[in-house]
Amino acid sequence: MLQEIRERAQGWVAWAIIILITIPFAFWGIDSYFGGGAEPVVASVNGTEITERAFNQNVNRTRIQLRDQLGRAYDPALFDDQRIREQVLERMIRETLLLESAEAMGLRTSDQAIRAAILSEPAFQQNGAFSNAQYERVLRLQGLMPASYEDSLRAELLVSQLPRAIRETAFVTDALAARSASLLHQQRELSYAVVPSAAFETSVEPPTEAAIDAYYDEHPDQFATPEQVKISYLLLDAAELAAPDESIDEVSLREQYQLRLDEFTAPEERQARHILLSVPVDADQQRLEETRERLQAIQQRLAAGEPFAEVAAEVSEDPGSAGQGGELGWVGRGSLDPAFEQAVFALEPETLSDPVRSRFGYHLVEVLAVRGGEPRPFEAVKETLIADLSSGSAEGIFFEQAEQLATLTYESPDSLIPAAETLGLEVQLSDWIDRNGGEGLFANPAVIAAAFSEEVLRLGNNSELLEPSPEALQALVLRVAEHREPSVRPLVEVRDEILSLLETQQLEDAAKAAAEAMVARLQDGEDLTTVAEGFEVVDAGQVDRTATALPPVVAQLAFSLPRPATEGAIGVGSTTASDSGDAYVVIVTAVLEGDPAQLGEDELTAEARILTRALAAADADAVLADMESQAKIERKPVVAEEAF
Q1: Which residue, 151, 287, 456, 632, has most beta carbons within 10 Å?
Q2: What are the start-end ranges of the E strands in 299-339?
């Protein structure tokens, strides 16, 4: 198809097209064509603009990272889109400030640092090692070129230098670490009363219709459904294109076997032992002759039947093997001195060599056993050959059909059926999917971006050919089958939800009010049992911060209350558990500090390390806040993306 276009784009028609293209270049310049024109901005930092496009890319990347980190636990409803967008903008402002400061200080990121970061990135590795093909594929799926990715990585590493330098200056004194450890091991003597929300079911009035209507009107986002699409798609998978075993003949298999004979041949290894009499490399002839004669005398002892291991332990001057009777274990080619290796691989098993000269001295060598060196039989590798030939055939078929798929779906942009019929593929249909993606194929951000692109969603065309998986050889073309605009569920549909929410809130409010009244009476001098008026009272005794027997909200409140000012006084407060709606009234009667002297050195060291990290983060945040206060920053309001 591309060749046909090239052949027809000749003569006066082609020249006319070129002239038409040249006119806007002359007026607006090539920069505008590549996105260098007046692009919408969301903020500027000392004159440096943060574009709307870059901002939206970072927002989408943040959503993807959240989904990747949480896996199946990810629920878009738990993350407020407006808040995410605001946090992303603030992060981009800080990064712009840091980049500006780093460049002003003359900081740089070396090419070696870029290379190291790329080589160590797990996403670019296969079988634990960097793969250039995997690197290029991952970047391609994200719509990036290696040069642009490396530029962004250089900036990212540069941005991290200043905060890292600040953090590395943080330190903690022994006294501060001891005080922190003392607070960490502090114990408090407390008791508490439970005020269950269920106790007020008969005393609260049911929500009125007006209250239900008001709640619905005031919380439309709570009942909103996001923009969604159902996707029709064609998936071409190389794994399903493998040639059947019976189509691969015996002759082809044996040809492949011969071509790959080295692959099926294990390297020859020999189990050897030796006796060494060392000689300096620059020894004179007399020294060489004397050493050789000594070794020949040892050779005669062995020939007379003395055990090799005993003789080696007695006379060998190789400190690494003499104690093991001269044993070298299994050795392969390329791991030994050349002259010594030649002798080892020339000997028959259980044969003693004549004296062998190497750069270390003179050796007597004995080969005990030989393994490897012979190819595995054809029958033993036949299944591997069949699988590899099938896979290779499938790969060729895949690329041929992927090209057809791209051409057919481009020539019929309003339907997948012609391509499906020609290639024998099934038109598949997804579930409803929003802009946060789904599972499987639709967890890929490139696939979701294509599904919600203007070309596919608004104009109703087929997508371009996509690669949905960096691990599998697959090609995907999709189109929108159904589209649902974002909407608010009708009141009649959510009325029962609102009723339940309001009833729960009324019970929580009643329990909270009762707990606060109890706190007031306790502060006036009454005791807990009296003010509890039949509610459960628990005497917890002395507890530490890690106490698991207490409700978490009770422990949190107990260790945040001020210590009793005088003997006999109390610290008192109330809190509500968000999961149950029950309220708690907590009394602290005594505080016992932890004793640093009773803590181990390792524990104090660990506490100092934790404090150092906290102080380092606080220092970096303080510097960033100061930089931000002195910078000229202009922000535009950021709102959730609107649907088409």
Answers
A1: 456
A2: 327-332
- In the chain, the N- to C-terminal Cα span, in Å, equals 33
- Per-residue model confidence as pLDDT tens digits over 212-240: 999 999 999 889 888 999 999 999 987 77
pLDDT (average), residues 6-13: 39
Q: Give the number of other CB atoms < 10 A from CB of residue 380.
A: 10
Beta-carbon contacts of residue 480 (< 8 Å; ≥ 6 apart): 229, 230, 231, 232, 451, 456, 457, 460
- 477 phi and psi angles, rounded to 5 deg: -130, 135
Angstrom distance (rounded) from CA 276 to CA 318: 6
346: number of Cβ within 10 Å? 12
CATH number for the segment(s) 269-371: 3.10.50.40
CA 46 to chain centroid, in Å, comes to 33
- How far is it, in rounded angstroms, from Cα 548 to Cα 546? 6
CA distance 521 to 529: 11
Torsion angle (degrees, nearest 10) of CA 299, 305, 308, 309 = -150
What phi, psi does 203 have (nearest 5°)?
-105, -5
**3-state per-residue secondary structure call for 519-585:** HHHHHCCCCHHHHHCCCCEEEEEEEECCCCCCCHHHHHHHCCCCCCCCCCCCEEEEEECCCCCCEEE
How many Cβ atoms from other residues are within 10 Å of residue 366's Cβ?
A: 20
Beta-strand ranges (E) seen in 491-559 are 537-544
Measure the CA–CA gap between 24 and 309, rounded to whole angstroms: 89
Label residue 197 by pLDDT band (50, 70, 90): very high
Q: Is the separation of the CB atoms in 269 and 335 below 8 Å?
A: no
